[in-house]
Every structure is written in structure tokens, then in C-alpha cells.
Inverse folding.
């Protein structure tokens, strides 16, 4: 077994171990209801962090629109679930279909946004993805969608102008969003989705395509000159990342009975919060993203008094991490006092003696 | 007639965007970084004015001067502490730091002033103008905003063309290394740019809060992002570009609010950004920069 496979198995093992421990704790009743309610959101954040890490860490581009993809996945799957809640009674089949629909719709949006936008780089890409997220959020708030026996009705004014016959059902009610989504998301499904996302991402990284994507990240011009199709590989990574974020949205939609697009859940604040997970966990390090997402979601909940200061602490963490990683003085300091160096110094002294 | 008053309001809003976009574009042109915290400096300026005018009871003009001083100092401090150590870092690291600074400012303001919306007293004392027998009303804020932004824009252009410090800014934005060899103090020039940008943000904050008299810790975030859109729209790094982009964006936003949908106005503004970047990635007045290996 080589080093990467070993490291990948440690990551899978960590997730499974966490799942088993949590299940035992829940089984013995030693978990508070607060923590129980946090289990599914934890899975959602972990999946989002993995998805964004694919864009930021592996592709090397900053996306501030992941909340937008999440929003798209959430609403498309919630519409599907609300429409089919009476016709498909098998929960497992319906939820699986909902997940697939959420992933596909988010992937389609990823392609639509990616084809034109991936030509841009750096700050421009970040700001355009941010714009995309805001457009999605604004748009969903003015959409009215209803269904009667003649099929779907769509309006952007209000629910009256849908012109529906009797016995109709309003699915998306503008700013009030979608109500009555079945609460199908469970901790087990969340863990399965984390494992699938991990499997997809880790396999992508270690494949030929993944190496091409990382080559583009490290030096675009050199990669182009050895014949790597830049647009194709970037689009591939971006689309996969978008569809995983869409699946996180599906989980989100099916964990709440009312789904609305507020700045709080689908605004760019959400995208930035995911970015904090990725940065703190280590850009490009999937295991780090999982740990950071779990810790940063749990900590403020466990330390209730800290909640007012949570975003402040996030902000400071972001700045300090970046300074610590990049500032020349901090680098010098780290080289001087790093554990590795201290140990090797000791060894060297021993040898001298 | 209503079209004309929408247009005038659009130009007024656009002038505020233009003032913010000028700061964005100058910093981007010289430090090659997107200063995400720029919008929040507007908010700090607004709160400074609020405190100075309401608590200390000083006249508006003095309050504006104090706000400019505080924002300038803040901009310089942020640059020294957070951005200067990252000159050699990857653009992604700098962008994330800027996002961090933006969050820091918002949350400090949130802890100090709370999340409640504050009612802001206008700093403008100019009376409203009524044209065409009362069919078009132009508020004093609108007049002052448009005139102030035109004066500032001309002043800035003259400063860059005529003064030594302005020429140094141009040189640093063209080629940092060569500028340093010619004896220009690059670090001082970058600091000066941040100082000017932040001072403009303070003025923009005073005008923004006078025209839309509510103040929360998140007041600056959206105008900040839209001003960046305006800067990109006009061609980032170009000062006339930022001005034109800002005015156009204000007009587009106000007209779509009036004629299409008030909820969709933001979405339309962002959609325009995406379209502009696709058709002309360098913006209206931007220069194309060829990349070398």
C-alpha cells in the first residue's frame, strides 16, 4: 500500500469511526438533544467544505458562490420531493432520486456558469461566483411555482397570478419559499454522502485528470504547453464541486420543514463560512476540511457564551492563518523553531558528541 | 417626467458607487489586490459620523472631517498590519485576508453598536431643487453627491497627472521593480494609495448614509461589492473607468428598480457584471495585459 492510499484510508476510517462512536452515544442516550439536532448540519458543512476544497485547493481558484450551488440543489430537490410526496411512497427511492436531481441540477448550473467564467482568473472569478450566488438567492425569492391538473404554473409576480384551477398546490411561494418538504435527511444518510463525496474527490485527485487539474493550478502556461486542455479539466473540477455542493443543499432542504432563501443560509456569508473551514483545515487537505468543519460547528454550540463572538473569532482566525502561512517574518520564525528542525538539531549534536 | 427623476436618482446613487469604486480601482491598480474590506470602511465612516454628530453634537462639516481622518488612519493601519506582510504571497491568500478584515470590521461594529438599525441624520443642509413646475424634485443630497463626486474625480485626476506622488503611483502600478530602481519608495506609495482610498470611502459613507439614512454594521458590504462591480465594469485600474462604471451601474440599478422589479435589481446588476466580463474581460476602459511565462 503506498502512502496516498494509506492516507485516504485513514480519512475514510476517521469518518466511519466518528459515525460508529456517535451511534453508540446516541444509542446509550448520552447525547443531548442539542447535539442530536446538530448531526445533520454537521454532515452538510463537511460535504460543503469538501466541495469547496476541491475548487480552492485542487483547482486553485476561489469560488464565493458555493452557497448558490447549494441553494440550487436545495430548491430543485425540494420541489421534486413536494411534488412526488404522494406518488412515490417509498422514502428511500424518493430521497435517492431527490439527491440525484439536486446533484444534476447543480452540476448543470456549474457547467453553465463555468464555461464562460472559468476563462477569468483569481479575483475576477471570485467576484463573478459571488455575483452568481446573489443572483440565485434574489431570483428564488421572486419565483412562484404551482401545480394543478394542467401541469406546472410559473410566475414572478405573486401566487394569484399563477392562474391555477381548483385543487392546485403552490410549491414555491416567493419569499416564503417551500413548505412541507419531507424531513428525510438522517445522520446515516449524511455520513454516506460524506463518504461518497470523499471517494469521488480523492479518486479524482489521484487520477490522471486530477494531476492535470493540479498541474494547471501550479503553472497554467506550462500545463497548456504540454498539451493539457485547460478549459476541459477546470470545467470538470468545477462541475464536480458544484454538484457536491448541490447534494449538500439537498440534505439541507430535507432537514427543515420550511425552505427559504435568506441571506443567512444562502448568502455569501455562507460561502465565506465554508471558506473558513477550508482555510483552517488546510487548503487542499480533505481530512483537514472535515476536522475543521466539525470543530468550528461544534465549538460555538458547546460554548454558548461564545456565540456573539463567533464571527469575530472566525475573522481573526482567517487573518492570523494567512499571516502565519505567508508573512516572511512568520516563516522565518517557523523555520527557526519548528519541531522538525529542533529534533534534527539534537540528532546532529548527538552525532557530534 | 418620472423617467428623468429616476435617471437623476440613478446618477446620484451612481456617484456614490463611483466614489467607492475610485478607492477600489486605485488600490487594485497599485497593490494588485482586491480590498474586500473597502466597503466596511464606509460603514466605519458612517458610524463615526453618527457618534460625532449625535453624541458629541458637533456640526456636520467637522464630523465629516473627523470621519475622514479616522477612516484614513484605519486604512493605513489595515494595510500595515494585514496586507504588507503578504506582498509576496499568492493572490488567493491576500484575498482571503481581505475577507477576514472585512468580517473583523463588521463584527467589531456589531459588538460595539449592536445589530439595531440606527437612524442617521443627513449631513447635507442644501435645500431641494424643484424643476418643471414641481414635477421633478431633486433633493439636496442628490445635488451635493453629484457635485462632490465630480470635484473629487477631477481633483484625483489632476493629483495623479501633476503631482510627484501621483506620478509615483502611476509608476508603481506599471512596474513595481522598475519604480523602485528609479528611487520611488514603493511601500510609502502603496500606503498613500490606501490612505486616499479610505478617505474617499469616508466621504462616500457620509453621502450614502445621508441619502439612505439607515446604518447597520452591514451597511457597507453591498455598496462595497457593487462598487467593485462598477470598477470592473469600467475597467479595473482606470480612474475614469471607475467613474463611468459607477454612474452606469447606479442608473441601471435605479431604472431596473423602477421598471422591472425592486427585488430583482441586485440580480440585474450582477448579471450585467457577468455579461460585461464575458464580452470584454478588461471592462470598458481597461487595458489588456499580456501574460509572460
Amino acid at each position: 500500500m503506498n502512502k496516498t492510499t494509506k492516507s485516504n484510508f485513514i480519512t475514510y476510517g476517521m469518518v466511519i469511526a466518528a459515525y460508529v462512536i456517535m451511534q453508540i452515544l446516541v444509542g446509550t442516550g448520552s447525547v443531548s438533544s442539542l447535539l442530536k439536532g446538530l448531526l445533520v448540519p454537521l454532515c452538510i458543512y463537511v460535504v460543503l467544505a469538501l466541495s469547496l476544497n476541491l475548487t480552492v485547493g485542487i483547482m486553485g481558484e476561489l469560488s464565493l458562490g458555493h452557497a448558490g450551488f447549494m441553494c440550487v440543489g436545495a430548491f430543485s430537490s425540494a420541489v421534486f420531493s413536494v411534488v412526488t410526496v404522494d406518488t412515490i411512497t417509498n422514502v428511500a427511492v424518493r430521497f435517492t432520486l431527490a439527491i440525484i436531481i439536486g446533484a444534476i441540477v447543480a452540476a448543470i448550473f456549474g457547467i453553465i456558469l463555468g464555461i464562460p467564467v472559468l476563462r477569468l482568473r483569481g479575483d475576477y472569478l471570485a467576484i463573478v461566483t459571488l455575483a452568481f450566488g446573489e443572483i440565485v438567492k434574489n431570483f428564488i425569492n421572486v419565483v412562484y411555482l404551482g401545480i394543478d391538473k394542467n401541469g406546472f404554473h410559473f410566475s414572478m409576480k405573486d401566487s394569484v397570478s399563477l392562474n391555477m384551477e381548483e385543487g392546485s398546490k403552490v410549491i414555491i411561494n416567493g419569499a416564503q419559499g417551500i413548505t412541507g418538504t419531507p424531513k428525510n435527511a438522517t445522520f446515516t444518510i449524511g455520513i454516506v454522502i460524506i463518504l461518497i463525496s470523499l471517494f469521488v474527490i480523492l479518486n479524482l485527485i489521484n487520477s490522471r485528470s486530477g494531476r492535470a487539474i493540479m498541474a494547471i493550478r501550479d503553472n497554467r502556461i506550462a500545463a497548456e504547453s504540454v498539451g493539457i486542455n485547460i478549459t476541459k479539466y477546470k470545467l470538470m473540477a468545477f462541475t464536480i464541486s458544484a454538484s457536491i455542493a448541490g447534494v449538500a443543499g439537498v440534505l439541507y432542504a430535507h432537514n427543515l420543514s420550511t425552505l427559504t432563501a435568506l441571506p443567512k443560509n444562502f448568502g455569501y456569508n455562507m460561502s465565506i463560512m465554508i471558506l473558513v473551514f477550508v482555510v483552517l483545515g488546510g487548503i487542499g487537505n480533505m481530512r483537514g476540511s472535515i476536522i475543521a468543519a466539525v470543530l468550528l460547528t461544534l465549538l460555538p454550540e458547546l460554548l454558548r457564551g461564545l456565540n456573539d463572538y463567533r464571527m469575530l473569532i472566525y475573522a481573526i482566525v482567517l487573518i492570523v492563518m494567512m499571516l502565519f502561512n505567508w508573512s516572511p517574518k512568520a516563516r522565518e520564525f517557523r523555520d527557526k523553531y519548528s519541531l522538525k528542525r529542533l529534533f534534527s538539531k539534537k540528532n546532529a549534536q548527538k552525532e557530534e558528541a | 417626467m418620472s423617467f428623468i427623476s429616476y435617471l437623476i436618482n440613478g446618477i446620484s446613487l451612481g456617484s456614490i458607487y463611483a466614489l467607492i469604486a475610485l478607492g477600489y480601482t486605485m488600490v487594485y491598480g497599485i497593490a494588485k489586490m482586491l480590498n474586500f474590506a473597502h466597503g466596511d470602511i464606509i460603514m466605519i465612516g458612517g458610524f463615526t459620523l453618527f457618534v460625532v454628530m449625535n453624541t458629541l453634537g458637533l456640526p456636520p462639516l467637522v464630523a465629516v472631517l473627523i470621519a475622514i481622518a479616522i477612516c484614513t488612519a484605519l486604512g493605513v493601519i489595515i494595510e500595515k498590519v494585514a496586507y504588507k506582510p503578504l506582498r509576496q504571497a499568492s493572490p488567493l491568500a491576500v484575498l482571503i485576508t481581505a475577507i477576514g478584515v472585512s468580517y473583523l470590521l463588521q463584527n467589531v461594529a456589531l459588538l460595539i453598536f449592536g445589530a439595531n438599525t440606527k437612524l442617521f441624520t443627513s449631513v447635507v443642509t442644501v435645500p431641494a431643487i424643484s424643476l418643471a413646475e414641481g414635477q421633478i424634485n431633486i433633493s439636496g443630497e442628490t445635488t451635493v453627491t453629484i457635485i462632490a463626486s465630480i470635484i473629487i474625480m477631477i481633483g484625483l485626476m489632476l493629483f495623479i497627472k501633476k503631482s510627484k506622488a501621483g506620478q509615483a503611483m502611476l509608476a508603481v502600478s506599471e512596474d513595481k521593480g522598475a519604480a523602485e530602481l528609479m528611487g520611488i519608495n514603493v511601500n510609502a506609495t502603496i500606503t498613500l494609495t490606501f490612505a486616499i482610498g479610505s478617505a474617499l470611502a469616508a466621504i462616500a459613507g457620509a453621502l450614502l448614509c445621508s441619502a439612505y439614512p439607515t446604518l447597520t454594521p452591514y451597511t457597507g458590504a453591498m455598496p462595497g461589492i457593487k462598487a467593485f462591480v462598477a470598477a470592473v465594469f469600467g475597467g479595473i485600474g482606470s480612474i475614469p473607468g471607475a467613474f463611468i462604471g459607477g454612474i452606469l451601474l447606479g442608473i441601471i440599478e435605479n431604472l431596473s428598480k423602477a421598471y422591472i422589479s425592486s427585488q430583482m435589481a441586485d440580480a440585474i446588476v450582477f448579471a450585467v457584471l457577468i455579461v460585461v466580463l464575458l464580452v470584454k474581460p478588461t471592462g470598458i476602459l481597461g487595458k489588456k495585459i499580456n501574460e509572460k511565462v
Chain A touches chain B through 47 residues (CB under 8 Å).
